[in-house]
Design a protein that fits this description.
Layout (H helix, E strand, L loop, with lengths): L5 H6 L1 E3 L2 E3 L2 H8 L4 E8 L11 E10 L7 E6 L33 H4 L13 E2 L16 E3 L7 E3 L2 E8 L2
Antiparallel strand pairs: 1-2, 3-4, 3-9, 4-5, 6-7, 7-8
Length: 169
């Protein structure tokens, strides 16, 4: 659902009941005030984890203005999180899509290599929230994935994802 172009990610879109707010909207919202980030992932419920949502919480989140839409994320809270800090690797990165490669891997386009979803890829990823949404559990590296905590493999693939931004008081 997230194999989109840079212009679609900039404007935002809905697809199959999913919503991407839009990079321009995110940059405008997070450009003022302070924002927190809450990521929720739903496991498949087979294998290593139970079918409950897992989460990662960050006390600081910002998306810069276009054309790079640079990610600024900090303040990972390990006491409130049930996932690992997979965004630290992507902090400071530009947003890449299948038609606008802005990652740091000069040998390939990370978006094209890992399912054509847009994301703040480094070289290439420790998470891929906008990866392919498969209809069953898979170990393919093009699906929704996140670097998790000790009891799971380095990167685990998930059924669905949610990203919530919260304005600080």
């Amino acid at each position: 659902y997230f194999a989109k172009t840079i212009s679609e990610y900039q404007e935002g879109f809905t697809s199959h009941g999913e919503l991407w707010l839009g990079l321009d909207n995110l940059a405008q919202l997070t450009g003022s005030d302070s924002w927190e980030l809450w990521v929720e992932l739903t496991p498949w419920g087979t294998g290593l984890v139970q079918p409950k949502k897992l989460s990662a919480f960050y006390s600081s989140f910002k998306v810069g203005k276009g054309p790079s839409y640079q990610l600024t994320v900090a303040g990972f809270d390990s006491t409130r999180s049930t996932l690992g800090d997979a965004l630290k690797y992507h902090n400071g990165r530009k947003f890449s899509t299948r038609d606008k490669d802005q990652d740091s891997d000069s040998s390939r386009g990370c978006s094209q290599t890992y399912g054509n979803g847009g994301w703040w890829y480094n070289s290439c990823y420790h998470n891929n929230i906008n990866g392919n949404n498969y209809i069953e559990e898979t170990e393919q590296d093009k699906g929704i994935s996140w670097e998790v905590k000790e009891s799971l493999p380095l990167t685990y693939h998930f059924k669905e994802s949610s990203i919530l931004i919260i304005r600080k008081n």
